[in-house]
């Protein structure tokens, strides 16, 4: 039998075409006053909630893991502003912001952090494992990259049912190097599944910078081998996120299959609560906070356009602080699950 001629990599005719450059990711949505006020309020709620969660953790009220989202608020808020009722959200362990953005109650999230009965998982899931079918929030996952495959499954369900919902699956720059992400990309592209893959590139995976860990640091190109288009987006500007989200969701809803949004963002706090943060300088964090903070950007715009006064914004802050304080009180006074509940709601 004649030996089969092996094709050289470069001569293969079956190689996937690179994704067409039809998206830029650099558009900025025009917000009216209501949209800017909404974005301001929602981002502030996440920030104040996270600050309080950090305090409660320090006081010993929260056990286990707790990963704060401070700095990245514009990503979930901009995405949520573009989503429709029924679109599913799934993410990793840095998840409190995603939950609040979907409209889940601060009380239920905080009570879950403190392991109480009226937490979203009845106090048995904690920070990384909360769900709300009502708000189409599918977790909260501690295995890096796992939510990408699960989110692809949600998109498969949408296609199978023939509804026009889109699955929005968030993952980090570190997770983007996991193998199951590419198995998911392949299936999603093959079956044209309605899913927006959001890579929250906050520059670090625990203490490892993207520069040290990744061969292709333009994550928006990560789907090109499968023909999945992608955009790099300023994830610190809620209007840029909203504009990219509008395009991406429309792409999915019109049956064109998956799309990737790489959100260029930054986390101000450590990876989790026990992070000495020796892998970056204080100056780096400070520069990001002072020049790109997502909330300050909206605040400055509201004032500059004359859409709100300092007093108006202080009133929003007061309102948000009240919601967070109430959630913290609730999370400390709500009872723990009864002993008889030890074996319910869990997998044995
Ligand atoms: C499969 C698996 N490997 C390793 C870990 C440990 N781990 C937890 S978070 C993390 C870093 C992930 O970084 P990234 O995806 O960038 O998300 P970020 O924390 O920046 O939001 C690692 C390696 C894990 N939880 N699961
Ligand atoms: Mg990261």
TrEMBL record:
CDD domains membership: TPP_E1_PDC_ADC_BCADC
Catalytic activity from the UniProt record: N(6)-[(R)-lipoyl]-L-lysyl-[protein] + pyruvate + H(+) = N(6)-[(R)-S(8)-acetyldihydrolipoyl]-L-lysyl-[protein] + CO2
InterPro entries linked: DH_E1, PDH_E1_Alpha_Subunit, Pyrv_DH_E1_asu_subgrp-y, THDP-binding
Domain Dehydrogenase E1 component: 42-339
GO terms, molecular function: pyruvate dehydrogenase (acetyl-transferring) activity
Cofactor(s) demanded: thiamine diphosphate
Keyword Ribosomal protein part of the UniProt annotation: no
Enzyme class: oxidoreductase
Signal sequence segment: none
Keywords: Oxidoreductase, Pyruvate, Thiamine pyrophosphate
Region feature (Disordered): 1-22
Gene3D superfamilies: 3.40.50.970
Biological role: The pyruvate dehydrogenase complex catalyzes the overall conversion of pyruvate to acetyl-CoA and CO(2). It contains multiple copies of three enzymatic components: pyruvate dehydrogenase (E1), dihydrolipoamide acetyltransferase (E2) and lipoamide dehydrogenase (E3).
Oligomer and partners: Heterodimer of an alpha and a beta chain.
Listed name of the protein: Pyruvate dehydrogenase E1 component subunit alpha
Origin species: Rhizobium herbae
Lineage: Bacteria, Pseudomonadati, Pseudomonadota, Alphaproteobacteria, Hyphomicrobiales
Gene name linked to the record: pdhA
């Amino acid at each position: 039998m004649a030996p089969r001629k092996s094709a050289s990599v470069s001569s293969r005719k079956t190689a996937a075409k690179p994704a067409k450059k039809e998206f830029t990711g650099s558009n900025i949505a025009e917000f009216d006053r209501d949209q800017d006020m909404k974005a301001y309020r929602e981002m502030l709620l996440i920030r104040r909630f996270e600050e309080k969660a950090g305090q409660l953790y320090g006081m010993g009220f929260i056990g286990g893991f707790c990963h704060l989202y401070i700095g990245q608020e514009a990503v979930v808020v901009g995405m949520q502003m573009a989503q429709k009722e029924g679109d599913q959200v799934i993410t990793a362990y840095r998840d409190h912001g995603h939950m609040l953005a979907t409209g889940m109650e601060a009380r239920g999230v905080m009570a879950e952090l403190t392991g109480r009965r009226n937490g979203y998982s009845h106090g048995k899931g904690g920070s990384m494992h909360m769900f709300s079918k009502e708000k189409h929030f599918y977790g909260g996952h501690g295995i890096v990259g796992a939510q990408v495959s699960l989110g692809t499954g949600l998109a498969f369900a949408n296609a199978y049912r023939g509804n026009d919902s889109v699955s929005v699956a968030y993952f980090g720059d570190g997770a983007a190097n996991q193998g199951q992400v590419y198995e998911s990309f392949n299936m999603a592209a093959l079956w044209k599944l309605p899913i927006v893959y959001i890579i929250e590139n906050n520059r670090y995976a625990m203490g490892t910078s993207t520069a040290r860990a990744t061969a292709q640091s333009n994550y928006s190109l990560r789907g090109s081998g499968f023909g999945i288009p992608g955009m790099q987006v300023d994830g610190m500007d809620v209007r840029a996120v909203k504009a990219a989200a509008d395009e991406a969701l429309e792409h999915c809803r019109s049956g064109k299959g998956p799309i990737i949004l790489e959100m260029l963002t930054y986390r101000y706090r450590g990876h989790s609560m026990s992070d000495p943060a020796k892998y970056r300088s204080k100056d780096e964090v400070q520069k990001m906070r002072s020049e790109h903070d997502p909330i300050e950007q909206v605040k400055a715009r509201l004032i500059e356009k004359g859409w709100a006064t300092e007093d108006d914004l202080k009133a929003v802050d007061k309102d948000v602080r009240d919601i967070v304080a109430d959630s913290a009180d609730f999370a400390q006074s709500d009872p723990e699950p009864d002993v008889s509940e030890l074996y319910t709601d869990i997998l044995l």
